[in-house]
Design goal:
This protein is α+β, with helices and mostly antiparallel strands and about 160 residues long. The chain contains four helices and six strands.
């Protein structure tokens, strides 16, 4: 049994460092990518406040397909280059969007989402998934959030590569 207890008083860099340590402990020895993504989505939800959606989109057949997540039902398939997730998947670059309504081509899976952070996960020299975080608060995410989730993505690449 895992009992991770994030401390809300920690500075973001330390909280994200602890998230990465917890993620490594949670996925250690488990080779099933879907099981790892499911636990990681729940762990992110537990560690990152102010979210209304946290989860994964997996690269399948040249696009993104919904993976494990916490939140309301979501879009199932997203083409590379479409929306925030598709842009991150196609470019291999983090997308930090303060106001999703101002993002050209935003896909509104949940009308309550106001800001979004999407970080590609790389393994074997290619993007294999994206971590998608949504918040109902405009400008919820900043550079520290992006750096923290990017570090997490590096730490978990092998665990979700399947």
């Amino acid at each position: 049994m895992f009992d991770f207890a994030p401390d809300a008083a920690l500075a973001k860099p330390e909280a994200y460092r602890q998230l990465s340590v917890a993620a490594a402990a949670l996925t250690e020895g488990e080779s099933d990518a879907v099981a790892n993504m499911a636990n990681l989505a729940a762990l992110i939800w537990q560690y990152v406040p102010g979210l209304n959606w946290a989860g994964f989109y997996r690269v399948v057949d040249g696009g993104l397909v919904l993976g494990p997540f916490v939140g309301k039902p979501a879009c199932i398939r997203i083409a590379f280059g479409s929306g925030v997730c598709g842009t991150a998947g196609a470019s291999g670059q983090t997308q930090l969007v303060a106001d999703v309504h101002a993002f050209q081509g935003h896909i509104a899976c949940d009308g309550d989402s106001a800001s979004e952070l999407v970080v590609p996960v790389h393994a074997g020299g290619r993007v294999i998934a994206v971590i998608d975080l949504d918040s109902p608060t405009i400008a919820r995410f900043d550079a520290e959030d992006a750096a923290g989730i990017e570090a997490l993505a590096v730490a978990i690449g092998a665990a979700i590569a399947g």
